[in-house]
Give the backbone structure.
Amino acid sequence: MEYLIGIDLGTSGTKTVLFDVNGVPVASHTVEYPLHQPRNGWAEQDPHDWWGAVQETVRTVLNKSGAKPEEIKGVGLSGQMHGLVMLDAQGHVQRNAILWCDGRTQKQCDEITGTLGQRLIDVTANPALPGFTAGKILWVRENEPAVYEKCRHILLPKDYIRYKLTGEFATEVSDASGMNLLDVPNRRWSGEVLSALDIDSGLLGRMYESCQVTGAVTLAAAEVTGLAPGTTVAGGAGDNAAAAIGTGVVETGKAFTTLGTSGVIFAHADQVTIDPKGRVHTFCSAVPGAWTVMSCTLAAGLSLQWFRNQFCGAERELAAAQGRDVYELMTDSAARSPIGANRLIYLPYLMGERSPLLDSDARGAFIGLSNIHTKGDMIRAVMEGVAYSQRQCLDVFREMGVDVSDMAACGGGGRSPFWRQILADLYGCPVKTIASEQGPALGAAILAGVGAGLYSSVAEGCKVAVHAGEIQQPKAENSAAYEPFYQLYRNLYPTLRDSFHTLATL
Ligand code: ADP
């Protein structure tokens, strides 16, 4: 038999899945590790913990599956994006990795914007954001000069695992797109940005396409993981780009929406298209010669979770007594409310908003509350408001010429047929589930399969290994009924913006 392994280096843990060549998961194992928050707003992890988790999960899936090491045709890596790993000349970790969710670098981001202005968006396709890597590099240079002085290699989280597996200092275009250092249209490090920020390009890894082989498992790595020496390791991809492959988003018109804690839309684009206002991100796709456009709203599933925690104690008790999911009970009562929730609109800006508003002072609201409203109306309004925010992101994509006609739904909220129907009606396109919930790990494994020559292309790999589940079709009469509510929703933030900003100062 022939198998592939996908390793997904998440923030809460590493999940490793061993697949057969048809994308069927044969064995899976997850090992968690801590997140360190040395100060309010900081977020770090120890790269040694990641490597420990990779060794343990790979050994476990090999044991559980009974696959022989020589039957593993390739390993693919997926991981949390943006994190900064610094190694010295001997390849030793110099300090904890600074993660995507660390907020310490606003000052450095302002400096980058001051130095490069609009050129930064033109070249790297994204504004300087505290989550991205460049600001973190400047922060270490300014605050820990001794560390910076000794640093010889800068790697992203999953690329540190590649180094431990193969001894190679390398990265690939999709993950590198989240550093604010890549020339995204040309898929190579930007000499212009690096020299403007005075960062030595020799610190950065060699650049690959995501499905290319970047190295082979060394003897030392084989001993600790159980893999065969010489097993090829493909470029892999950042977590969302890998999820795109694992959900078959590899052709024009295809996209996925994740309703997890946050809400993400990730769409394939054959041409590079950059939003000059920086409202959505453009990244290189894990498909060679293609790009992806991504939006991120901050409180998608979080909105429903917040409502559950604050107002649905009775439903939680009932759900526990009946052995049902509380979200299902909540959704049942929402389904009894009509489209528009009896003229109630919810704004999902509990954590401020990123796409497409870029306003950390925006806040949530129920607009139109009346004595007639029930909890069911409010739950429906929350689910509709989250869907309106996704539609508003999709409108930006469509404005940019990115066509979306085939949507997959992922994340906890994507499991709800009711929420998927609201999305389908607002998007005006079918919304489907994907049979396998292994998104990023499957995507990484497919990329490994292309590198190893098992599939002729990424699209071919997806045809073999990605299978659709249920599909919700848009209903024209529903779409028409939502439209006036959606248009009103769009107007509410501009109307309330000044009040939100004043509120933040009180
Ligand atoms: P994370 O982004 O933290 O990994 P998940 O993808 O697990 O989160 O999504 C969690 C969110 O999914 C919850 O906050 C909730 O809003 C939503 N959710 C989970 N189950 C359901 C369900 N059955 N119906 C509707 N929403 C759900």
About this structure: Residues 331 and 418 are 7 Å apart (CA to CA). The chain has a mean pLDDT of 96. The chain is about 40% helix and 20% strand. The pocket of adenosine-5'-diphosphate is lined by residues 259-261, 301-302, 304-305, 325, 327-328, 331, 411-413, 415-416, 419 (CB under 6 Å).
